[in-house]
Design brief:
By secondary structure, the protein is α/β, with parallel strands linked by helices. It has a single domain, classed as 3-Layer(aba) Sandwich (Rossmann fold), CATH 3.40.50.300. The protein is built from ten helices and eight strands. The strands form two sheets. Strands 2-6-1-7-8 form a five-stranded parallel β-sheet, sandwiched between helices. Strand 4 and strand 5 form a beta hairpin. The longest helix is centred in the C-terminal third of the chain and has 22 residues. It binds cytidine-5'-diphosphate (CDP) (2 copies). One cytidine-5'-diphosphate binds next to helix 1, helix 8 and helix 10.
Length: about 260
Amino acid sequence: MHDLRVTQSRITQPRVAVLLRMSKLTIAIDGPAGSGKSSVARRVAAMLGYLYLDSGAMYRALGLKALRQGIPLDDEARLVALANQTHIELRAPTAEHEAVGAKNCVFLDGADVTREIRTSEVAQAASRLATIAKVRQVLVAEQQRAGAGGGIVMEGRDIGTVVFPKAELKIFLDASPEVRAERRWKEHQEKGDRITLPEVFDEVIERDRRDRERKVSPLVRAADAVLVDNTAMGIEETARLIVMLAQEREKELAGAAGGKP
Ligand code: CDP
Ligand code: CDP
């Protein structure tokens, strides 16, 4: 039985209401670990009044379930069956979760796993089961269903290449490996996790390599994606740049449709 659901509330902010007049685009943001996808995508969605979907949280939730059930991460048949029997819900974060840096609340079969999915062990498990084509099929189908109406910012590894190849705006978000590892390490520090910067660096590099080298839906910049390197940029600055690109794209589309630019 296929029982995987994604729900997410729409985030609106009155002070940027003027942007809501834009017709609803699909915005795909892909990039490596720690490049700022979740923070930036969530901010862009808030500025535009769009949905925000963190596809990586779905792979992480499934990875957590596989670890808990002791399913070997190379047992394709059991992992595919697991994906089909799993109920994942993504919701806007509660104030409590937001206070500790969560960009969304993640529910696995009805239980809140928002914190539990953010460990290095779960990240590695997610990236291992993400190499299995039939597992991806289940999650991708649900992502496509969730984003079918447009007006969404979805982030991950294959959003612009596989999930929404026709997305009106595609961003490939990047930053240097050192900066990405340091960002992730700071998050661990804030949570009190006992993990060193070199350990986080190795985890990020290993996961990047697996994500880039896998046969199915590897992490790659789509030919029509805009490369945004935010090594030396903050979240707000990066989000504003993407909102500007979205407005440009909207004008182009309106022009092409014969409307007023
Ligand atoms: O989703 P992804 O792994 O690509 O990155 P993220 O979770 O959005 O960002 C990782 C950490 O880097 C978070 O703590 C962000 O606050 C921080 N960050 C930053 O300091 N500057 C940026 N331009 C982007 C993210
Ligand atoms: O936050 P971070 O960028 O570290 O990772 P994530 O976005 O939460 O994704 C965790 C893992 O899930 C990645 O390392 C990928 O292996 C996998 N993933 C994927 O294969 N495709 C996606 N669209 C999203 C995540």
